Known about the structure:
Blueprint: H1 2-78, H2 81-84, H3 90-93, H4 96-101, E1 104-109, E2 114-118, H5 133-141, E3 145-146, E4 150-151, E5 158-167, E6 173-182, H6 190-193, E7 202-207, E8 212-214, H7 225-228, H8 232-238, E9 243-248, E10 254-262, E11 267-274, H9 275-327, H10 340-375, E12 380-384, E13 390-393, H11 395-401, H12 422-435, E14 439-446, E15 452-464, E16 467-477, H13 479-493, H14 503-520, E17 524-532, H15 534-560, E18 566-571, E19 574-580, H16 584-599, E20 603-605, E21 608-610, E22 613-620, H17 629-644, E23 649-652
Helix pairs in contact: 1-9, 15-16
Amino acid sequence: MGRRILAQLSLRTRILIGLVLTWVLVVGALLWFGWVTGRELVREVNFEHLHYESRLIADAVSDEVQTRLNVLEALVDGNGWAALRDPQFHALKSNQALLELFDGIEVYSASGKVLADWPDSTGHVGHDVSSEACFQMVRGTLQPYVSEPLYDPTTLTPHVLILVPVLDDQRELLGVVAGVVNLRTGGIFEQISRIRLGVGGYAIIFTASGKMLYHPNGGWVMHDAHDVLDGAAIEQAIYGWQGEYIGPRYDGVAAYQSYRQVWPANWIVGVFFPEQEGIAPLSGLVGRLSWIGLIMALVLLPLLAWSVVVLLKPLYRLKRQIAQVGTGQRQRVKLRTDMKELVLLADAFNAVEEGRNKALAALRDRQAFIEAVLASSPQGMFVTDTRGRISYMNDALVALTGRRFDVDREMEWIEAIHGDDRPEAVEFWYHSMHSGQEFLRQVRYWRVDGELLWLEIHASQVVADDSVIGFVGTVKDVTERREEEALRQWEAEHDPLTGLLNRRGFERRLEEAMADWRKMSTPSALILFDLDHFKFINDEGGHALGDEMLREIARRVNSAVRGTDHVARQGGDEFAVLLPSCSLEQAERIAEKLVAAINEAQVEYRGQTYRVTPSLGLTEFRENDGSIHQPTARADAASYQAKQRGRNRVVVAEYE
């Protein structure tokens, strides 16, 4: 009697525990689903809000910069060069807009000398600014330009210069007018300082070179933006990306982030809002729902416990008899009860037990036969159960892999597959087990001694009485064949002299980039160039010297581009560079790096140094491009224009 009561309590306890766990899992799943769904909604709402704020700030800053550019251009258009370079600044001091928008004005000659400045207390007249990057940019492009942030040498305050060229009728440079905007008092960031984003939110502005222009903590101004920001988003934003992102700030706090470009100045606006602050209302709601679930459990579980006690009594007898069948104390279940359902259950159990005994006997016979066949095979062979546990390996497979697997460990053989091939192999293995299809895969496999092999694994289901009882498979070593195929593939798409892509390999990648452009509007850029004066090197030193120069050019070009870019030698001294996911502005910067890198290349022959220069044609993918031939033709035409304009330069293909 005591043992019966103990058995009843034990079974009831297990069922009650199951009910409690079920309740906890259901309530937990509902709360988790509500939390995940709510968090996603909160994220979308905050992204929308930050998108609006960052766009508002970027538009406002763009207007501020554009207004100052317009005022300077109006000043240049409305006054002659003689009036602009007047050291007394009569033409400039009378312009109220200049006095309100700029903290200072400077006029430079075409050679880079400061001719006039306002206010004249700065003492810059006579200084040479020809070496400054901003002056060189304007002199080179003859276009307005916003400089990188600088420190004023007199006041040590951070500022930027807005430069506008002064041209004569033949578009020759007469000089440059530069407006000084103080980053602390210039008013260009006045609107952003008034924006409030909750308690912990804030906005910043930094340059595309990574220099901080505005931060609520003024001490960060002029610092490297990488010291203030963290994560992959800043790198994408610096290369022209705009959008929303969630990730850690520099202090490790997770935050919603939004980035927008200020195109007139090549600046970037970043807006941050702490994730914890955004989801605080959702956390409170989930907490209240948790308490409600707990109270309901305390009310309902006692009622369920009483119901279990009443319903389980007839089952305990069935449980004991089934246990006796399992231990061999009886052959069949004989249950006396008025519950028809339990009688049917007992009959069904007896039928299953008889079928199981027959199946086990047949399986033992088949297992013995299969093991005898597999052991005699010279090819690697294995047998697994339906869970992927290897129950048998023949000697050939042990010799090939160098290991035997533990039968008790499920899918242990997967651990020896190369990490890059493992996810696909596991996915297809489970698909084969559930669908009945054959498993056939070539994977990289680590032998026990560390050697990496290419193995071809072929496995098929073993079915008995319409039931899957396991898998039987073969394993082949295809390492040599795979290596030969990889070598042929590489040789088919690469230039043997430089190791770069050849025309065939480059056109395949160009087609892939064009497909991304058509499907997802992913921008890409194309650069074509050949080498100026290369024929002279071949004539002087022969093809061996020319080949040496080509290899040197290939090495330097590869070093100057991004890791994701594709460089090709298309024949002779003709080269091509594909810049996937790259805006035109970023591509121009990379093209200038290529010019500088190629200019540094040199070879020596008989005591003489030889150099070459490139003529680069640059274009981006455009809406009307129906195939790769259109951008290729534009880049080729732009390269030809670069030669006509004096070589050693970049020419961007114009819109027709």
